[in-house]
Amino acid sequence: MWQKLASLIQYLAKATGNVCVRVNNQNILIFKNMLVHITDEKGNLFFKEGILVEAMRNGYWVILDELNLAPTEVMEALNRVLDDNRELFIAETQEVVQAKNGFMLFATQNPAGSYGGRKVTFRNRFIELHFVDIPDPELKEILAKRCELPSSYSNKLVSIMRDLQKRRRESHLFAGKLGFITLRDLFRWAEEGYLLLAGRVRLPREAKNYSTIHSKDF
């Protein structure tokens, strides 16, 4: 569970007095542009260091959420940073940035085999920690508090999620345990309802199958 790991890292960074920067897949393009081109009020172009360069210079901790969804350019930039010399070459300024002591890079992703998991050769550059599923009672409580749902409703959402995880179908929605509904899906589902999951399937019979499971609990 990548959300669980990210929260743990942020807690440890705060407890040890480190600055922690979290980059999700919505602003991954900002991360990719290690130097951000900015125009001032007079139209003059200048460079502002991006997230990765700033973190390396200052010894920050960086969390990359859902690394398996990051573009290839990000992977290429990270390769050199993950080498023993921990350097980054900035083509725009012809400068080599050396990571300051304390700089740490964390990445989260869904298990390999789902959501286009990264190749083993790249993943081997990290120390991998695997987190088990959050227990149902705890998951129900998180849903109820985070999404402000009555406990009866959060119980039904978790029940449907477990039923869907047992189904094996042609799409990732019904791909069994490894094609699971992520916590992000579950939170969005609690807020957006039926269309989030039913709208992702391709075959009418799969949508009908989901509708049957949904109707059983609701």
UniProtKB/TrEMBL annotation:
InterPro entries in alphabetical order: AAA_lid_7 (IPR040848), ATPase_dyneun-rel_AAA (IPR011704), P-loop_NTPase (IPR027417)
Record Pfam families: AAA_5, AAA_lid_7
UniProt GO BP: ribosomal large subunit assembly; ribosomal large subunit export from nucleus
Record SUPFAM superfamilies: P-loop containing nucleoside triphosphate hydrolases
Keywords assigned by UniProt, alphabetized: ATP-binding, Nucleotide-binding
Keyword Nucleotide-binding part of the UniProt annotation: yes
PANTHER family: MIDASIN (PTHR48103:SF2), MIDASIN-RELATED (PTHR48103)
Protein name, UniProt field: Midasin
Gene name tied to this protein: MDN1
